[in-house]
Protein 1
Amino acid sequence: MRRFRWWSDRFHRADRAWRLVALAVAVLAASACVAGSGGEEPPGTGEPAPTGASGSGDAGADGTMTVAEFERDINGAVSIAERYWSERFESSGQRFQPVREVVAYQRDGEVACGGQEVPRNNAVYCSAGDFIAYDVNWAVAAFRQIGDAFLFYLLGHEYAHGVQVRLGIRYDFTIQQELQADCMAGAYLGDSVRAKALTLDDGDLDELREGLLAVADDPGQPWFAEGAHGTAEQRTDAFFAGYERSLDPCDLT
């Protein structure tokens, strides 16, 4: 079993399994959106997960994933993302304003973005209110099934959408926005590994690459359709370009 570990100034976690399979990564990709398009239900979510992302919770499928661990990982992922983008902005002489809030919700309509209800089984960045919202039951269940890598990818991609807004980036087509966010998420993870804020063991990237090959828009979906995210090859290329070469290939200028 391979391991995924992270450290930050405020949080320390023992290494925990990173189990990435094609279906699992498909869940990650489905959750990456700005305006609230629906996500997919992750494996093993027939029963509701504990709510609220607080308290000790029960162990997950592998005996290690608790709700308290989930809460610490969410906080850690947000902390690393804030630090990462703050450093990047400062290095270019700009002041970075962190995403205002990360909100957990449980029910359809509990959170709204620009007057539109955010549905369950989803995670979004809302530019209208400058916040990230995620369905806590869905995210805890996916966390238990997949591992903590889910949260770092999820927060990295959604945070990338917040950065796009801060940089004033606008695209005519959703696919351009999403592939850039994939690249930025890859850069965030890759740079964090190189800075030793995250540690991946040998083989983890091969598993991630294989999983990303299964992530694609439905066959026949036009690239220019609203909500299009890209083919498996496009998404894999975008993510690993960022992971391997940092932000240079992400076209942020």
Note: The CA atoms of residues 131 and 144 lie 24 Å apart.
Protein 2
Amino acid sequence: MPGAKTLEADILLNYDRPPPKEDGVITDIGDLGGAEAQDTLNVDGLYLIPTARALDDDGGLNTGAPAHFIVAEDPEGRRVRFRFEGGPARRRQP
């Protein structure tokens, strides 16, 4: 969320609807370098900003939350690269 403290971490998602890769849910957060993944999305050097839908009542990002993020070039989320709304990433339309 813009203005929040930054954290460098891996995020593991599972899909409630795996074949179309929809309804992604966060299942783990941390150093997951040793975890196996079917797909990966490398956002090194960018900011993954959770939307309000992904945050709990206290503004935290937790396992079990819907995977809804903005990937941006800045921590405020003004220069959006794409959005991830529980499924395949959607590029920002110019």
Note: Residues 40-89 form one domain.
Protein 3
Amino acid sequence: MHSIEKRQLALLLAGFHIWIIAASNYLVQIPVSVFGFKATWGAFTFPFIFLATDLTVRIYGPRLGRRIIFYAMFPGLLISYVISVVFQDGAWMGWRELMSFDLFVARIAIASFSAYVLGQIMDVYVFNRLRQNKQWWHAPAASAVVGNLVDTFTFFMIAFYKTSDPYLADNLLEIGTVDYGFKMMVNAIFFLPLYKVILDQLLGRIGVKY
């Protein structure tokens, strides 16, 4: 892999991480019903973070992969805080809102940071232990199960336990469970095949075999 192509691909993956973090931290504040169960719109976007993580680790290895992931985390959290403050319930509140501290949004950012760190550490650890397995799907499947479990319940407990939002506080466990179940369903149906397609294209482009 040429150094320029390597940097370009790393920036692309980092940008993917940032986009998912920012979008998910905003959308997790918006409630939605999924087959009669209480959830949030964040359940539809955050599963992509594990797709991005596994591709990063598969291509760059665990050491450089962690660096790329963690470098993306801080701008992602900053952007998500700004978006969540200036847009509330889908309405533009103005830049002046940034002049005051929003505890509700700050808790989401702190929870996202904690869950992201723990979830990604577990995801990278499990994935790296299994990525040499002859069956390509073992590593991304196992890492998604463990990483999503740690990430989901760490996030919801820190962000919404006794929070000021009644919907999120009163339905914390149901929302977290539905969120985790939806992530597992999406991962099995969509992300594993998508992971294989993207991985083959990226490795073919840079001339690396796995």
Note: The chain has a mean pLDDT of 80.
Protein 4
Amino acid sequence: MARTRESGRFDALRDALDDHGGGVRFVRAPGRVNLIGDHTDYQGVWCLPIAIDRDVLVGFRGRTDGRVRVRSLDLDASVELPAASEIAAWARPVAETLAFVRDRAGADSPGFDAAIASTVPIGSGLSSSAAFEVALVLVAASVAGVVLDATEIALAAQEIEVRASGVPCGVMDQLASVAGRHDHALLLDCRSLEITPVPLPPDVGVLVVHSGTERQLAGSAYAERRAACEAAAARIGVAWLRDATVEQVADDPIARHVVTENARVLGFVDALRARDAVRAGALMVESHASLRDDFAVSTPELDVLVELSVAAGAFGARLTGAGFGGCIVALVARDRLEAVATAVTERYRSDTGLEPDAFAVTAVDGAGFTGPS
């Protein structure tokens, strides 16, 4: 069944491009869920995401006239560049991608036609935008003959995100999408950009539950939180809050979250390596409390989901991503995933009147070229 659905996605992209003759190539870029370590990447601290089995899939073919046409099957919308008028918000990353690649390849780089389909929920905190931008960079670089390594792809996608959205995001999402590894989490050192794969215990699963409230990052206090972190670092006299001590930030809740979260990430990695899911889960709960109380980016809905997940038997749970809505992530015994998902969604629906969506995710390899099997 899954293979049939996947084949159907390739067919839908070919249909959108009116091409079944084999001239279309495909790129996929996964979304990510962050197990622990949020609002730390822009302070050079560690975080621990996994690339997930939900992705942005792009079918594309080159053009010789320098023009670019992109269609989103999910939004039923298209953009053609150069555009005669202002382009829609969803298509701004396309324009920024072209600007980046043409800076590298020169003004005469060729264009392309592309069709896009995504299984990463938009506004969920699972990095649908980062996956979109990583996929676009791969497509545009391929067509233009520009060679980029994994780190360059991630940094390009980050730059495109900042330019397109105005949100001063860190690089965690893009690195996770590019560098994902099957059955592993990724310990990202966001200062050096070093990546250390960490095996996930085979008897533990990852459950994501969408709160039914969409995250609005560009309209959120994300930029304010980042500015507060930078101000705290300057006040202490360090370049990054990564280099601050707990004592130095004891009276600053925003900075305190970053410093204590740093320690929690490393403790969580130790717990995974020891296959201590109970300890890992406790650190997730502590992380959520810090994001809720010190960093103030949670919502009542996310808080309820965390409480319900733990009550239903999860080892631990926390909001994932920037907060302000979207999803929580829970660590659950693999043979209890379905039972926990059912218990949480039924109670949440009854208590809030909102419609949640719970689904297990697995860690997958990072972005690259693909095709129907």
Note: The mean pLDDT is 91.
